[in-house]
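Students often ask why we bother predicting the structure of a whole assembly rather than each chain alone. The short answer is interfaces. A chain on its own may look different once its partners are present, and contacts between molecules only exist in the joint model. In this exercise we take two input lines together and write out one structure for the complete complex. Read the inputs first and try to guess which parts will touch.
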Amino acid sequence: MAKMNKSFLNLEENYLFSKISKRVSDFTEKNPDTPIIRMGIGDVTLPLPAAAVAAGKKAFDEMGVKATFRGYEDSGRGYDFLRIAVANYYKSFGADVPADEIFISDGAKSDSGNIGDIFSDDSIVTITDPAYPVYVDSSIMGGKKVQYANSNEKNGFAAMPCDIDPGGQQGEGKGGQKPDIIYLCSPNNPTGSAYTFEQLKTWIDYATENRAIIIYDAAYEAFITQPDKPRSIYQVEGARKCAIEICSLSKTAGFTGTRCGYTVVPKELRLESPEGKEISLFNTWVRRQGSKFNGVSYPVQRAAEAVFSKDGQRQIAENIARYRENATIIANTLTELGIDFTGGINSPYIWFKCPGGINSWDFFDIMLNQANVVGTPGEGFCKNKLSNNGIDRFRLTAFSTKENTEEAMRRFKKLIETKR
Amino acid sequence: MAKMNKSFLNLEENYLFSKISKRVSDFTEKNPDTPIIRMGIGDVTLPLPAAAVAAGKKAFDEMGVKATFRGYEDSGRGYDFLRIAVANYYKSFGADVPADEIFISDGAKSDSGNIGDIFSDDSIVTITDPAYPVYVDSSIMGGKKVQYANSNEKNGFAAMPCDIDPGGQQGEGKGGQKPDIIYLCSPNNPTGSAYTFEQLKTWIDYATENRAIIIYDAAYEAFITQPDKPRSIYQVEGARKCAIEICSLSKTAGFTGTRCGYTVVPKELRLESPEGKEISLFNTWVRRQGSKFNGVSYPVQRAAEAVFSKDGQRQIAENIARYRENATIIANTLTELGIDFTGGINSPYIWFKCPGGINSWDFFDIMLNQANVVGTPGEGFCKNKLSNNGIDRFRLTAFSTKENTEEAMRRFKKLIETKR
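Now the answer. The structure tokens for the assembled complex follow.
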């Protein structure tokens, strides 16, 4: 009988969002007339920028005419027009990324999982905890061993190499095993924290010392406003020798349903072969993609190109400003109430301590039943069961409308003040 | 130092298309004024059907308006509107495929490679030879062991279980090892042969006996005209218990640049866990996709839905008829010249014996230099080096224009008649 990949048995069931939607549907069944404000799932609400819509439509028109029809994209790595647009975008904030190291993808999720395919199954993967669950799940599926770097109150929910857990306990000093792969996400999902230049340099030095590869998820880079936080890891010295960067238009340009992202793989990155030879990581990734990825739809690539145009950039800046305004509304409410939080400044996520330090699922129920607001319990992002970094934390997103965000905060404030 | 997936070292470099384009560019450099007819790569030339263009544009318009904007697709498995359209399409030719077993994909290539992720690394994979190189390459990348079933003149280039090679030599009887996975492609790329109901039943019985899973690539099903050839493996009894089917709109609706396909995973399929328990293959695939796939762009899914509309079906029927006409032109020329071939009837590919039985690369050079026609040497599709199933075969595609196909055949005929 055909045998399953046994690593799948090591996966935890991903109950988080199904558990949330079960509780929400139970509530709405009992309270059909109570409107709920959803600030849980990290999905955008503002429509695609007009420039992207126009470009996507124009591209479909081209596809309908023989003279301008496009079949297979030769490289599968993205059209030059888009790769050049992305390279220029990087240049605009001071990162030097050549177009031929950019791979156009269908979003950050697939590449952040698929990149694991080119690494040895016995790799040690360091992942900050809490984190976007895909890093852990795809590493486990690939048979890799995962260790955690604890993000917690002490480090402002931005784990550093000294926070690597030597096996379940909170580490002091460089604990854990020598890593081969390190997943970092900044601005972070779910904690909203963003690394400074200096902090990222520490991670780069640590990776270089261990000859590990950093997989840097920059999906929220467009939300960065403070000048001491880099928008790309390539703004920091030494990154080209140890880091892959994964980015997405999902949150910055409303592409969660249109699907486009990009991954940067510097040509100088090296992997070790079983014979101890140094192998080009870039070539290995090209080979993987050549057999297992089809490339991104032409109309979608044209829509993405338009995001990087002058009009597109102006339009997404307006959208991001609106989400930032929501984040500020939430952050101000928390500050006013004296509740500890991270995020909200350089990030669309706000990660705060559940009032009274209660369990995040209990707080979820209170928020749902008493304020009719849906958020995400911090526990859902935490896999390191021995440290419970998110057990008393709660995530809200800034992707709702201003009206709903204000209304949610009014209810939240009332709820907290009543409890006190 | 981060270690590479050592299975990548077992991959052969994929020289085929780079070797072809090198020879073609050398030729055009020396002969800048000689027009070349390209019938090598399997890419379409007719534009996207008008119904798909209109639907794609409409969907982009929806994405630009808040009320109709779509963010994340909940399941990542495809919108119901498209899955239902695909299920109805299956029904139209007598295959019973429930919509909730259909996974919308970005094309056949990624799923035919990615499906390997859910099987154990030590799986034995049987692949007909010659074949689409992705089956072998993605199996090797996943650490699996590949054995071949030889397609050759004897079996009309449609390998059967009795053609499984017991280790390099042509097998008589059921050779080789007990397989866990079997890749079949019908109508076949590159040989153009299509399995009959009876032949597929033999494969299904063989897979059932061995409790193996068939991965059935039906990307060319729309080219089938003869009633004894099924368009889906699910038209054959027993398939739901052993087969996954992968299909694509690339060739049938000109989606090579727009990117959409679908994969059918029956819920009754089972995999064996290390403890000998039976595990749902469907659930395992859902889990894999949930962590490693982003779903397909909404405008692309709407364009695909339109392909299955009445207008869309009429429009693609016209396109397919034109490609079929080209196939007939090629087939008639070969018949007239007394050259042995397969395909051309139920397939856009024509696979023929190089005149005089010469090596396929030598024939490639003759075709290029003397007839100025580019085809694909059969050797490029063959990985079983001990049997050399395609060493004296050549593939032409019917995806060119009628004018070019006719002109190519005039030159081909002249070339052959001059040599005789």
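Check your guess against this: Residues 310-336 of chain B form the longest helix (27 residues).
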